[in-house]
Amino acid sequence: MDRGLRHTKRIKELDTDAAVDRGIGAESAGGVMLDYNRIWIFGYNRFIGKCNIFEVELWDILTGMITLLNNSFNKVVIHIDYLEVVQVL
């Protein structure tokens, strides 16, 4: 097997998605971990409480990273959809 292909197969993808309910302060974060073929490995979610969307997006990434580390994944591509967070990171 080609060394580059083996390396690619070890890389996982973290797709994050945060949600803010401005009415009751029920912010939450969640995402999915995918393999190199974008096949679902597992999902996660977390209730965060009252905060702004920027903070929720950061909590989402942190929760995803902790979940990944706890499951021994160390090569990850993170997909997020909030430009301000991307610029800060």
TrEMBL record:
An example molecular function term from Gene Ontology annotations: RNA-DNA hybrid ribonuclease activity
Residue span, RNase H type-1 domain: 16-88
UniProt xrefs under InterPro entries: RNase_H-like, RNase_H-like_dom_plant, RNaseH_domain
CDD domains: RNase_H_like (cd06222)
Organismal lineage: Eukaryota, Viridiplantae, Streptophyta, Embryophyta, Tracheophyta
Protein name as it appears in the record: RNase H type-1 domain-containing protein
Superkingdom, taxonomy of origin: Eukaryota
